[in-house]
């Protein structure tokens, strides 16, 4: 079992060699997601609250006529300081046929990472379960957590998508 | 071009042809068959066979071939029709449909089923005509698959001109013509390529087959006198145009006139346009609102432009919505067969009458109404209509009448299933309800009693029959209809019959909404669920043990559901006497919904929440308001359930806190 855990991330890291990532920050940590999943970046505005939903689901917003759920990743990751500022942005993500908006503190960069720059994730010490992590991006001064956003957003704990059989 | 590009066209057209065939077979008067109908049935089989041959659907081709031969004998008067023969034809038609489905899914049709139906058809041919139903041997492509001409002649001589047909298509078509007769000579260029042939098939049969590949306008089929055939004569004089036109055209026009003036469009494209128009309307009302808010008086040109935009946008919306409308005939046309088969099985004589076939309804609704209607029709046949003997004993004509009707009624469509059968049995329903533990009393009104049949698990059928009583009850019918935003009523009189009325909105894409405000939030109530609104007086409010509040409205006590509680809105008015209650009805139950304020009534474009998110308790969908913000459309029955479950969980939470404080004090 431990064998599997240590092998998988390496394989994942190799698979995603040299791709472009959108870098954003949540608190003090920097995260990156596959840029091909990103549809657009918008300011945070006009969200209609959904009753009886977990707090990190901010509600739904109108994206040019499409009703899009908005998830606050900062609340999901239990960041102490999830205030809305001028920099707060919504990254609109495409997963399959669905469109979901995620709220992050700030978008900083678009970066190309080569396979050598991507290290397998450690087995503990991160606020995310390993499932959602492709690997760690190693950039001299900085460390990027490469998030498998599709996996994260379709996970059961986020409950954005109804589970089969429900 | 790859021939498989034509597959979908073939499937669609063949499906339509099979539908036509069934309709004609059902309408056929067995004792005195109408020649036109027999020809139409034959033509349908023939066209399908031709297409099946072209595309190499061998099983389909062989089965249609057998059927076609029998039909040909029928239309030539050599085979006298009987009811059981028509039944066999219908069975064969079903088989063809199954085969078509198999090919559509890219699999070979069930060989066993095919062998069975082929055997039946062959047997029929042997018994009735005294000869085998024709060439069943390798029915690939070469064998002339038209029925062997009785006279032994080679039929008429034809000139088939292909206008502007590409070379690759031409090859297919010539091959196809080879199956219909003997091709004698081909000549000409791309824009007019002429095929001279001898065939027993008529011009419109040929055209029907060819139309799987080319448009009717691309064909010019003329009959030519035999002496003008190419072998003895070099240059055939063209026939006088007017005369041949009149020979070939009329039949063609009557069949293709409709097809030429309509197009097939994938539903997704239409939905996309509808969405975009919805956007346009929202943008337009946003503009309106901005102008109102900014008190921009500007010049008169701007204001008139804006109102023109508004009018055009509304017209556009209406026009686009109408694209999705299909006539109810789409639904009704499947019932003659069902009724015929069922009536036969149950030993009843039934006449099916359909009214308002041209009444239009949204395509998505027509698809969803089929199941509930089928259930109601089955019920009428099984429980409603009596056997001829019983009817005679009751002094009624032996043939029962089952009527399906559709009509517009305001913004709704009213669909009725009525029969002149025995009617519902009040005593039996009451007895059954009692044994099911439902709260009933003998002095309930008839309407209330009839509503009992919609209770889950309720069936008055004494025995589970082949036809009904298999667990899908009226409760499912009711639920399905309510899910479409409609409702069902039953009117019944003992001995006179039963009438079930279904009222549905015309479309699911637009909804008449009433916007209400709670705290800072706006919600939309479907107007169809709203009965009235009022400001409650303190005297009319009754608190019950457990915290439930009832509101007395005239003679009724209605549970009060606070929207701010169900939807967790803060800053709302909590004192009912200074708020507004809206009396709403859903799933037959009424309750009073507490809101802060009624904002207004408007048509809203319904947006699905589940497209990108998930089902939200108490909410059916969302919409976009004039200011671009999203508002949730409330699901009236679900909201009530949500409120109940919240109250229950609140009570549990309260109890556990009481308990823990007790524990604390005890320790």
From TrEMBL, chain A:
Coiled coil regions in record: none
GO cellular component terms given for this protein: cytosol
Highest taxon in the source lineage: Bacteria
Record-annotated membrane-spanning stretches: none
Keyword Cell membrane attributed: no
Domain (CheW-like): residue spans on this chain: 18-158
Alphabetical keyword list: Chemotaxis, Cytoplasm
Subcellular location: Cytoplasm
Pfam families: CheW
Gene Ontology biological process terms from the UniProt entry: chemotaxis; signal transduction
SUPFAM superfamilies, per the entry: CheW-like
UniProt KW Cell wall biogenesis/degradation keyword: no
Alphabetical list of PROSITE patterns matching this protein: CHEW
Predominant location category: cytoplasm
Protein name listed in UniProt: Chemotaxis protein CheW
UniProtKB/TrEMBL annotation, chain B:
Pfam families reported in the protein's UniProt record: CheW, CheY-binding, H-kinase_dim, HATPase_c, Hpt
EC primary class: transferase
UniProt keyword Transferase, yes or no: yes
InterPro entries attached to this UniProt entry: Bact_Chemotaxis_CheA (IPR051315), CheA-like_dim (IPR004105), CheA-like_homodim_sf (IPR037006), CheW-like_dom_sf (IPR036061), CheW-lke_dom (IPR002545), CheY-binding (IPR015162), CheY-binding_CheA (IPR035891), HATPase_C_sf (IPR036890)
Region (Disordered): 135-155, 227-260
EC number: 2.7.13.3
Gene Ontology molecular function terms on file: ATP binding; phosphorelay sensor kinase activity
SMART domains assigned to the protein according to its UniProt record, in alphabetical order: CheW, H-kinase_dim, HATPase_c, HPT
Record-annotated CheW-like domain positions: 510-645
Biased composition, class Pro residues, residue ranges: 227-239
Coiled coil (residue ranges): none
Catalytic activity from the UniProt record: ATP + protein L-histidine = ADP + protein N-phospho-L-histidine
Residue ranges of every copy of the HPt domain listed in the record: 1-103
Cellular location(s): Cytoplasm
Record flagged with keyword Cytoplasm: yes
Residue stretches making up the Histidine kinase domain: 258-508
Annotated GO biological process: chemotaxis
Modified residues (Phosphohistidine): 46
Biased segments, Basic and acidic residues type: 240-256
Assigned GO CC terms: cytoplasm
Keywords carried by this UniProt record: ATP-binding, Chemotaxis, Cytoplasm, Kinase, Nucleotide-binding, Phosphoprotein, Transferase, Two-component regulatory system
Role played: Involved in the transmission of sensory signals from the chemoreceptors to the flagellar motors. CheA is autophosphorylated; it can transfer its phosphate group to either CheB or CheY.
The protein's name in its UniProt record: Chemotaxis protein CheA
Gene name per UniProt: cheA
